[in-house]
UniProtKB/TrEMBL annotation:
This is VWFA domain-containing protein. It comes from Niallia endozanthoxylica. GO terms for cellular component: cytosol. PANTHER family: PROTEIN VIAA (PTHR36846:SF1).
Length: 83
């Protein structure tokens, strides 16, 4: 996520899209979440998160995302392709 944020900050483009696929173990410090949200507002990008597995930190990921999809495995995450 840090590298993604860095690439977006360095880009001259706005309105990028991020697809964040994770096992749901989002150990993100509050400082990073705040920086991500500030950059998201500034650069006008959207983030779709796909959480794979039963143990997911939905609330943390929701702070970063416009959409959050939970699935048991990647093959059942087909809802992500409907957005």
């Amino acid at each position: 996520m840090k590298k993604t944020l860095s690439l977006i900050n360095e880009s001259r483009f706005k309105q990028a899209d991020i697809v964040f696929v994770a096992d749901g173990q989002a150990n993100l410090p509050p400082e990073f979440i705040e920086e991500f949200r500030r950059t998201k507002d500034k650069k006008k990008f959207e983030c779709l998160s796909v959480l794979i597995g039963g143990e997911t930190d939905f609330q943390t990921v929701q702070k970063l995302s416009d959409w959050v999809i939970s699935a048991d495995d990647f093959m059942t995450a087909d809802e992500a392709f409907d957005i």
